[in-house]
Amino acid sequence: VQLVESGGELVQPGGSLRLSCAASGFTFSSYYMSWVRQAPGKGLEWVSDMAGDGGRTNYVDSVKGRFTISRDNAKSTLYLQMNSLKPEDTAVYYCNARAFANNHWGQGTQVTVSS
Asked: Is-contact 34 58, C-beta < 8 A?
C-alpha cells in the first residue's frame, strides 16, 4: 500500500495550488479518502473527505468555499484544489485512506503560504 502526495510548494497569499495523492496497492474506489493537515507546532486537523464513489464530500469550516476535494478512481488519485490561500493554511498536508479496519497515510507535502 502506498500513498504519495505531491503539489505542495511556497505560494503567496491569495494564490492557488492543487495537491495530488497517488494511491497504489489497494482498491482505491472502495476507500473513503481524506486530506488532513498539520500546521507548525500544532496537531493534526482534518480538512476534507470524500466517499469512495465521490458522491459525498465534507469540509472543515475554515476551507469551505476555497478548497475542493475530488478523486479520479480510474487513476487511483485524490486531489485537493486550494484557492484563495491564506497564511493560516500553511501546513504539511497528508492524504488518508480508510475502509473497514484499514487506515493508510501518505508521507505528506508541505504547503507554505507567505509573501
From this structure: no
